Amino acid sequence: MAEPTNTPMPPGTPVPASTPRSSSPLQQYSIPSLTPNATTTTIPLWPSTTSLPASAPRKPQRPIVLHIGDPIKYNPDTYAEFSAAFEVIRPSTPERERSEFIRALKEKRWGDFSAIFRPFWGTGGEMGRWDAELIDLLPPSVKVFASAGAGFDWADTKLLGERGIIYCNSGLAAAEAVADFSVAMIISTFRHLPWCMNAATLPYLSSSSCPSGARKAFLECHARATAVSHNPRGHTLGLIGFGNIGQQIAAKMGNTAFGMKIAYYDVVRKPAEVERELKATFHESLEGLLKASDCVVLCTPASADGRPIITADTLGYLKPGTRFVNIARGSLVDEEALADALDQGVVGAAALDVHMEEPRVNERLVKMATGLGFDGQKVYHPGRVMLTCHNAGGTVETHVGFEELSMRNILAVVKEGKGALTPVNLHWLKERTT
After folding, report:
1. Which of 80, 83, 137, 170 is the most buried (most CB within 10 A)?
2. CATH code for 175-387?
3. Rounded CA gap, 309 and 289, in Å?
């Protein structure tokens, strides 16, 4: 799972996946299998101390890796290789709080470490955003920062790159889980699943003393949902962003099972062979994609300037009744404008896994998601919105992959002197060296 908000959360907060850097050209990586090992036992870290004692030598024979967050859980074989290659130091939870973390960096408490390793999203973010205040204190020895999750808007990857530090995400590990979840959300917008589910259950909870209301809700949904439900087949699926997740969604929804037409918009057009394989049509502008789509899926990273790309203006390009899905970042959508578009019928149905102010969800969208109820004689407007809790990437297999891929990135860069497997900021490093 990746983070449920656009900034790191306190320890113990459950947190899910976002999207890979879809604006980058398609990259082919030869990476280790992300298949889970048989065991899921938590193994102790080596060495047992969390920080270098004052008397410890500052130039150990092995490179130092700063491990922020919980011990690894799923990949003991890879961790055995990892801990044999590096001196792994894991700061304590109090040391990871921002003020103490800054103090420790100034004191060079952990020596001249070569890499930062964050294998989970639930812990390791206690110091908050990685901005200039933290990055400027990193020793010159740091070469790579490898983290769980696909999203990286909590770290200034541009500044890291300018400092010569490669930032590696783990979006590849979350891609299948997020794509699978997206399939469910797309189907929901075509078949109005919130309405169908709520009509069968909510009246019993909200009006237990009025069984006739429950029966009426059930029968109305049974009779009326058909008129607004459609098969996805033959409709155009517009993907905003065509990275690992976008391409997997295209493969799943464009196959013989669902038979959708695939269209996409991205900052960088993908190679012709990718388009041929996925039968995907490229649109040079967001406007062109939105006008052509029957269902739009947002699967691109957060914008560099933090501004939304789904606004009242861009929603105006949609055909009436177009469906909308967001499994990317809540910050990319003006939720009030989306609620207006739903009210006006510009958007016929929506599904959102991510939200602007997580864990708070937009109240207007909540009413649209749970609006079915019984009030004496009146059945409320059927729910047209599916809302989930940033769950798209949240599977055990995703966590296994986050952990494995983060270690493999550091091994590749620091131990083997090779290129990183999943870098996201190489363009900033190139600018620094030219």
Report:
1. 170
2. 3.40.50.720
3. 13
